[in-house]
């Protein structure tokens, strides 16, 4: 593997701010971001990436390539929770296995945004409609995870309030804002893109850096929870993203995605949700242990992907797309 890709990624300012946040916790600095601020930064990033994606989608139009990509995205969001569930069930109970499987079947928008920044730094183009794939991949994993609990749970009296489940899956704040921004960008097109350009592009990397600084603080604090997960889950949190990325790249190659889109698709397949899915699992599967599915996704998979995974997946693309 070309080590320069990893170095280039690590020396990206937002990633360095992630390291700064982790370092602050390790050296016991009193650096702290007030709780409402990260939420605001998260909403901004979703709005900006969704809006820009909508603008790019109207430029490209709804082509066969777009449709195939979106079908592939939804397929991966449904399939990944199934095979990861059976792997996890070897060591964990039904509830923990289903919750973690749903977490890894869903996506991390921040990992996607970091990968987009990485591609921009390298001058590799990608299509805005990949944001639509991002939006479509978040919710199905929640539904599949709950179906797995229903199928394999020994508690026959267990019932789900499916109305609440579907609302949490499709109308949670991140999905709603991302899809809504995508639609607004699509409706307003290039004119709207130019109007919001100072907001959606001018300050984008500054906000991303600030958000990853906070993510570094949170991830470092979660590392102590890994003691509860054991070696099995730590290995799972590193190896399964690679497996999912390889499957994603195989699909991307099969449907002839360009290199930039292929990396983003691989990152979507390899990432794990640490916001939307945990919130849904807490409500619908209270038997599952949150420290397992949150700490593996946030303290292991997220840092692995933004530091090593993104350049590793690009290296695979450079090998097989020649």
Strand content: under 5%
Shape field: globular
Q: Supply the number of helical segments.
A: 15
Task: Calculate the mean pLDDT score and round it.
Answer: 86
Q: How widely separated are the two ends?
A: 15 Å
The description of the largest β-sheet is: none
* Secondary structural class: mainly alpha
Molecular structure report:
This protein is mostly helical and about 325 residues long. It is built from 15 helices and no strands.
Task: Describe what is shown at a glance.
The protein has helices at 3-10, 13-26, 36-60, 64-88, 94-105, 109-122, 130-137, 140-152, 162-171, 173-202, 204-222, 230-254, 259-270, 276-284, 290-320.
Write the layout of secondary structure elements.
Layout (H helix, E strand, L loop, with lengths): L2 H8 L2 H14 L9 H25 L3 H25 L5 H12 L3 H14 L7 H8 L2 H13 L9 H10 L1 H30 L1 H19 L7 H25 L4 H12 L5 H9 L5 H31 L2
List its traits.
globular; single chain; 0% strand; 322 residues; mainly alpha
